[in-house]
Amino acid sequence: xxxxxxxxxxxxxxxxxxxxxxxxxxxxxxxxxxxxxxxxxxxxxxxxxxxxxxxxxxxxxxxxxxxxxxxxxxxxxxxxxxxxxxxxxxxxxxxxxxxxxxxxxxxxxxxxxxxxxxxxxxxxxxxxxxxxxxxxxxxxxxxxxxxxxxxxxxxxx
Length: 157
Description:
single chain, mainly alpha, 0% strand, globular
């Protein structure tokens, strides 16, 4: 079965009454955890972006604190899991400033880790790819904000 285009879905949604829209949203949220999390962000956390970013940072700090650093293999798995979580939250927000703040925090936590991640080529590549993402997102911001984040980026580079 082929799904309709977004414009066709948008046109169809405009003709549905509000009660039916609510039912459709609830039904979508039941099927996938990611849909429910996105709906939660759009309804409750969308209004205060800085609070949302602080919650993400706190969750990342807790995950790094609970990480098993006894060997590099287990640490790599945990770091990738934390990065997947952070990228999921960034995707919900869709704002470049949120992406930069979260990824900068991730890089700071990775550098402060007790285990030497530079021994692993894969972890160095993960770190460098996050720096590239930060630079790419910074190009979309205003010059004043770029300058502020440039200082933070220099600290972790």
